[in-house]
Design goal:
Elements (H helix, E strand, L loop, with lengths): L1 H6 L40 H13 L4 H7 L8 E3 L3 H5 L12 E7 L7 E10 L2 E11 L11 H10 L2 E4 L7 H13 L2 E6 L5 H9 L4 E3 L4 H16 L3 E2 L4 H8 L1 E5 L5 E5 L9 H15 L13
Parallel strand pairs: 2-6, 4-5, 4-8, 6-7
Antiparallel strand pairs: 1-9, 2-3, 3-4, 9-10
Helix pairs in contact: 6-7, 8-10
Length: 305
């Protein structure tokens, strides 16, 4: 209301008194000299060191930038923001990982008939030590619906082998179930997590093979914890991958929505309907399964000293 009065969009009301503290339009939020403008109690109850810590986190973790701008600098922002800087993801790349995993989980995200489908195999070696690999499936005619500016990304994914084009103009999910079954022949899969959307026939085939499956809801209450845990692992370089740029591109397409309780949900940037995040969602589903099956440390529930 105060801002609309100042801009002339609302009628001035002499009964109202307003006092706004905030940055000017031209101010750089990274510059410490401007922070006091938005904090009238600066140096009394709000200290420079605390603001510096929040600002430093916001520089390296885009998901916290909106919170810093809104709650510390009184800048109006959207509820959505970029999730993670791709640089942190790229630093987690390794050539290969041949270690014997403590447990293996699969997460998959199915799409509409002509869209991208993702399967993530997540190997866990310890509470904070993971390796993830992916396989994507797309009907070959679905490639025609990929915008021209993304064609090279998909072509390179095909050439690298991470993206498999299936015959026809609609997805045959038998190829996906065959791939999951082949992964189960290599590893002792604890469980396979899935979003129920379009998954009935595929899950039926996995049941026929006696493979354990877990339905993972897509609500914020379910996905917030694994999303935050994954974020922590990426920032700590404790989850590795082979560095395929198809995943780096998808991570860059992710935005995070945060509710008033601090729960988060990772989703596609709504500004670009053609962007893909399916591989990241499949990873979050697999991480949910991992957190539901904690590492067995060999104890009996008693504390040791």
């Amino acid at each position: 209301m105060m801002q609309t009065m100042l801009s002339g969009e609302a009628t001035d009301n002499p009964r109202w008194f307003g006092l706004l503290y905030g940055l000017d339009t031209q101010d750089d939020w990274k510059e410490p000299a401007v922070w006091a403008k938005a904090n009238p109690m600066h140096g009394i109850t709000v200290f420079q060191e605390a603001i510096e810590q929040r600002a430093e986190e916001a520089k390296h973790k885009p998901a916290t930038l909106n919170e810093f701008l809104c709650k510390t600098l009184n800048v109006f922002v959207s509820a959505n923001s970029a999730w993670l800087d791709r640089t942190h993801w790229d630093l987690c790349a390794v050539d290969k990982d041949d270690r014997e995993p403590e447990a293996v989980f699969i997460g998959f995200d199915l799409a509409a008939t002509r869209d991208l489908n993702a399967v993530c195999t997540l190997k866990r070696y310890a509470d904070d030590d993971y390796f993830a690999k992916w396989k994507f499936f797309l009907p070959e005619e679905g490639l025609n619906y990929v915008p021209q500016h993304y064609q090279d990304i998909f072509r390179n994914a095909c050439d690298s082998g991470i993206l498999h084009l299936t015959q026809g103009n609609v997805m045959d999910d038998r190829e996906i179930s065959d791939y999951i079954i082949s992964q189960a022949s290599k590893y002792d899969i604890k469980t396979t997590g899935y979003d129920a959307y379009n998954a009935a026939s595929l899950i039926s085939r996995l049941h026929d093979q006696a493979l354990p499956v877990t339905k993972v809801g897509q609500g914020m209450a379910v996905l917030s914890n694994p999303s935050k845990h994954l974020e922590k692992l990426i920032l700590g370089k404790n989850i590795k991958h082979d560095g395929n740029p198809f995943l780096g591109w998808q991570l860059g397409n992710c935005e995070v929505y945060e509710d008033v309780n601090g729960n988060i949900k990772i989703r596609k940037n709504e500004a670009d309907k053609s962007a893909k995040v399916d591989g990241i969602i499949a990873l979050i589903i697999a991480m949910h399964c991992s957190l539901d099956h904690p590492v067995d440390h060999g104890g009996y529930g008693f504390r040791t000293f």
